[in-house]
Amino acid sequence: MSKQGILFVLTGPSGVGKGTVLAEVCKQKELYLSTSATTREPRPGEQDGVQYYFLTREQFEQKVAENGFLEHAEFSGNCYGTPAEPVDAQLDAGHDVMLEIEVQGAMQVHQMRPDAVRIFIAPPSFAELERRLTGRGTEDADAVRRRLETAKHELTLAKEFDYIVVNNTVEQATADVLAILRAENCRAAQVEIK
Ligand SMILES: Nc1ncnc2c1ncn2[C@@H]1O[C@H](COP(=O)(O)OP(=O)(O)OP(=O)(O)O)[C@@H](O)[C@H]1O
Ligand SMILES: Nc1nc2c(ncn2[C@@H]2O[C@H](COP(=O)(O)O)[C@@H](O)[C@H]2O)c(=O)[nH]1
DSSP characters for 20-34? Predict the structure, then answer.
């Protein structure tokens, strides 16, 4: 049987810097990034099929009913889900896959795919998380408040994950994530030798 790819999950509270760190990681490591579906409205500049597949709630629910998602969750009033088929196709082709998703979904992946390697990105402090989320300027004050409320609970779950990376600087967090990816690839290679 040919080698399967490794499924990686990058999670953590909204605004912690998952997307920023992942963009740097992808400059140095070949990874298939899953494109999620969401019912959230596109932000200025976001395009359907690029950042997300933007679905109506009915379309999203239809895909849930068809078992089309590897995981899905409601977050801050909107639905988000990982389309299963492209992820499986990439893993079967031997390519490593990365999901960048929120914490409830990441917990589901553990149940569905116990082999997945899950990395929790944590902020250096709660005050810094608040600064980053507010500073990004993509949500109004009410949405920022809701996301921070959710973050308080999400941070208590960090210890459930395989690795915790504190995103102090983007450079250091990128190096830490790359080291994890390398280590997990070495582990997979050893399993094959046996
Ligand atoms: N190490 C860092 N130091 C300072 N600012 C950072 C750092 N990492 C990310 N940021 C900034 O924090 C903001 C949020 O980052 P980003 O959008 O990557 O977060 P996210 O976790 O992907 O959020 P979401 O889950 O909502 O998609 C951005 O403005 C980004 O430039
Ligand atoms: N459970 C899932 N969470 C997802 C997915 N795609 C993205 N996300 C996460 O949702 C929040 C909010 O995203 P935003 O784009 O509105 O800021 C963030 O933490 C994303 O990582 C998914 O498929 N499933």
Answer: HHHHHHHHHS--EEP
Kindly provide the residue ranges of all beta strands, DSSP E only, lying in 26-130, ordered along the sequence: 32-33, 36-38, 52-54, 69-75, 78-83, 97-100, 117-122
Ligand 1, atom 31, residue with closest C-alpha: 20
What residues line ligand 1, using a CB cutoff of 6 Å?
14-20, 132, 135-136, 167, 169-170
- pLDDT digit string, tens, across residues 73-107: 999 999 999 999 999 999 999 999 999 999 999 99
pTM for this predicted structure: 0.96
| Position in ligand 2 atom list of the atom nearest CA 13 | 19
| Domain residue spans of the chain | 7-190
Protein residue closest via CA to atom 7 of ligand 2: 101
Ligand 1 atom at minimal distance to the Cα of residue 136: 29
Which atom of ligand 1 has the smallest separation from the CA of 131? 12
Any ligand 2 atom below 6 A from CB of 100: yes
Round to whole Å and give the CA distance between 5 and 95: 4
Q: CATH classification of 7-190, choosing from 3.40.50.300, 1.10.10.350, 3.30.360.10, 3.40.309.10?
A: 3.40.50.300
